[in-house]
Design brief:
The chain has 23 helices and five strands. With 492 residues, the protein is of the alpha/beta class.
Length: 492
């Protein structure tokens, strides 16, 4: 019950609301993010038809994928090492703050990770038994990962590097192993080409402002976030890096005598190298969640290092692991309180604290009149609000008037007519929106930004213009503040 309450108490944020909008309202995925492969949304749509559209129902899909990932991680660790390492690997992954974070999100990453470990499991079984069944299943899960998220293509790079640098087999077997990634490249060339073209043409303008350039600090934060997730301080990231990195390196060192297990090194480092090269040559993409497919391998090496230590030194390793678990608890505390301890542009690019959307809608529901109009200035707050108000009397009078268009949200055009807005995509029932605003007695202006701790001096200039326009044209009657959201009610 406590886990249910903690998960269901979370507000959806913008990216999760995208998933809910795509599956429930048949909004074109391409209109949102044209480079997103479609498989996750097809499967979530099926899940939604089975269990409904509540938050808990939608989140449970990611929970199920994460549970399967833990089980397959255990089986892979047994193939690599032994039962003891398998149990410890599965345990570490199950309590990892980063894994738990995405296990509760209505996003692609848990499904991606599940398909990735299933693909790797059947690829590894080919090492023990050449069979057409294992080969085809590996291809199937690799394809599923690629159609779930673009980083699923990293699996092809991992397998190719492993085949080229590690195997000395007969020409026929080597040909078959090389043929697998070539088949995938041919089959998925259209979607891969589409991803690269869209990213190259659009990402620089749309996302480069929040995705940092590749740096040494980015690599340090990568492993620190793998240790503790997104919700700890700089100091704790630094301490965890100093404590865990020697254990991780010890695991790599211990593999020097186990050539058959070196695949795990390809699993960890090839995705990093591939994403780094993409970030340097095509578009900025070095976002930590894009490397989540290597998370199980990271914990396997740590588990392997700990399980193989004997005598006195073993207590030192167990002491480090105990301290790591204490850090996990600290991270959980702030994760479920939804508190990010450092700015997002430093360590958690593209991850934000959630707005108090449900709380603000409860306030509006209590004070709303049928002749009112609710106008959202930020799509970061608007799209989640449209999800929560889907069955509410508020929904028909809710509109978006921000500077950027967002599919699935009704736009109010009259502000653009007077030159307040700087263009953008007009979506929805424009005529109905115009009539609703002009006939309204009151307008609720909902101000927000991506960061919950925003102030007016850092808002987008167009949002400021909208607020100033309302202040001049209408009479401010009241205002309220919620986490990340400020509500202003004007008399027309």
């Amino acid at each position: 019950m406590d886990a249910h309450d903690r998960i269901s108490s979370l507000n959806l944020w913008y990216d999760e609301a995208i998933s809910a909008s795509v599956i429930q309202e048949a909004v074109s995925l391409r209109k949102f993010y044209g480079f997103n492969p479609p498989l996750y949304y097809f499967l979530l749509r099926f899940w939604y038809l089975l269990l409904g559209n509540s938050e808990m129902a939608l989140r449970s899909f990611s929970v199920l994928c994460s549970l399967i990932t833990i089980i397959i991680t255990y089986k892979i660790a047994i193939l690599f090492f032994d039962v003891k390492t398998g149990i410890l690997s599965a345990f570490l992954l199950s309590v990892s703050p980063l894994h738990v974070y995405y296990a509760r999100e209505i996003r692609t990453y848990s499904l991606l990770l599940m398909f990735a470990v299933l693909s790797i499991y059947y690829f590894l079984k080919l090492n023990y038994k050449e069979s057409t069944g294992n080969w085809l299943i590996c291809l199937l899960f690799t394809a599923a990962a690629a159609y779930t998220h673009f980083s699923g293509f990293f699996l092809i790079a991992v397998y190719t590097a492993y085949i080229v640098f590690s195997h000395k087999e007969t020409i026929i077997k080597l040909y078959r192993r090389i043929l697998s990634p070539l088949i995938l490249l041919v089959v998925f060339y259209p979607i891969l080409y589409n991803l690269l073209v869209i990213y190259r043409n659009e990402t620089r303008a749309r996302f480069d402002y929040w995705i940092p350039a590749l740096s040494l600090r980015g690599f340090v934060y990568l492993f620190s976030i793998f240790n503790l997730g997104y919700h700890v301080t700089r100091e704790m990231y630094f301490i965890s890096f100093l404590l865990i990195m020697p254990v991780f390196i010890s695991g790599i060192w211990k593999l020097r005598k186990q050539k058959k297990n070196r695949f795990i090194l390809y699993w960890i480092f090839i995705p990093i190298i591939t994403l780094a090269l993409i970030s340097l040559t095509i578009f900025r993409g070095f976002v930590y969640r894009n490397l989540i497919i290597m998370l199980p391998a990271y914990y396997m090496l740590i588990a392997f290092a700990v399980s193989k230590v004997k005598n006195f030194r073993q207590y030192k390793y167990y002491g480090v692991m105990a301290l790591l678990l204490l850090f996990f608890l600290y991270s959980y505390k702030h994760m479920y309180s939804d508190i990010l301890k450092i700015p997002h542009h430093i360590a958690h690019h593209g991850e934000h604290e959630r707005h108090a959307t449900k709380e603000s809608l409860n306030f509006l529901e209590k004070n709303f009149r049928e002749s009112d109009v609710i106008a959202y200035v930020s799509r970061a707050a608007a799209l989640p609000a449209f999800y929560y108000a889907r069955d509410s009397r508020l929904k028909k009078n809710m509109y978006y008037i921000g500077p950027y268009g967002t599919p699935g949200i009704k736009r109010v055009k009259h502000l653009a007519d007077v030159g307040v807005l700087g263009g953008g995509m007009i979506e929805g029932r424009v005529k109905e929106a115009d009539e609703a605003v002009y006939e309204a007695d009151r307008v609720w202006l909902i101000m927000a930004d991506w960061e919950t701790g925003w102030s007016f001096d850092i808002l987008h200039p167009e949002k400021i213009k909208i607020k100033e326009y309302f202040d001049i044209k209408y009479d401010l009657e009241l205002n309220r503040k919620f986490k990340g959201i400020k509500i202003f009610m004007y008399i027309l």
